[in-house]
Amino acid sequence: MTPTALSSLCRLDDIPDGNAIDVEAVVAGETESLLVYRKGGEARAYLNVCPHAGRRLDYAPGKFLVRNGNIICAAHGATFTADDGLCQTGPCKGQSLRDVPVVVIDGTVHLV
Ligand code: FES
User: Fold this and answer.
1) How confident is the model at residue 6 (pLDDT cuts 50, 70, 90)?
2) Ligand 1 centroid vs 36 CA: distance in angstroms?
3) Any idea what the CATH number is for the domain that residue 68 is in?
4) CA dihedral 17, 20, 26, 29 (to 10 degrees)
5) In the structure, what pLDDT confidence band is assigned to residue 4 with cuts at 50, 70 and 90?
6) Residue ranges making up the domain that contains 105
7) How many domains does the chain have?
8) Per-residue pLDDT tens for 49-93?
9) 9/36 Cα distance (integer angstroms)
10) Which one has a higher pLDDT value, 5 or 94?
11) How far is the CA of 38 from the centre of ligand 1 (A)?
12) Which of 17, 36, 89, 105 measures 20 to 30 Å from 69, CA to CA?
């Protein structure tokens, strides 16, 4: 797959370092809300769906609780490691956010 065939999500600079934004994208044929997390020059993306009760992770549209490399679900406080999406504490401990593969090319985050 060439870079031109990739679907761009956002500019890396749209995301404050150490934080996340919400981006809508078509994943597997469905329009989905994605949480896109930035750590320096890298990005990770997850479906904006908590494995506990299926609620959105954001406390307001596009506003996520991200602290010290952890993503905290606004519904019941499940805390996920931003680097891998694994729930460390909370009602879905041991479960993971659904990873959506992305790549950063020339400062733009693309779906793989
Ligand atoms: S829906 Fe996320 S912790 Fe309950």
Assistant:
1) confident
2) 18
3) 2.102.10.10
4) 120
5) low
6) 3-111
7) 1
8) 999 999 999 999 999 999 999 999 999 999 999 999 999 999 999
9) 9
10) 94
11) 22
12) 105
Task: Dump the DSSP string for the chain.
Answer: --GGGSEEEEEGGGS-TT-EEEEEEEETTEEEEEEEEEETTEEEEEES--TTTS--S-SBTTB-EEETTEEE-TTT--EEETTT-BEEESTTTT-B--B--EEEETTEEEE-
Kindly state if the Cβ of 75 falls inside 6 Å of ligand 1.
yes
Nearest CA to ligand 1 atom 1: 53
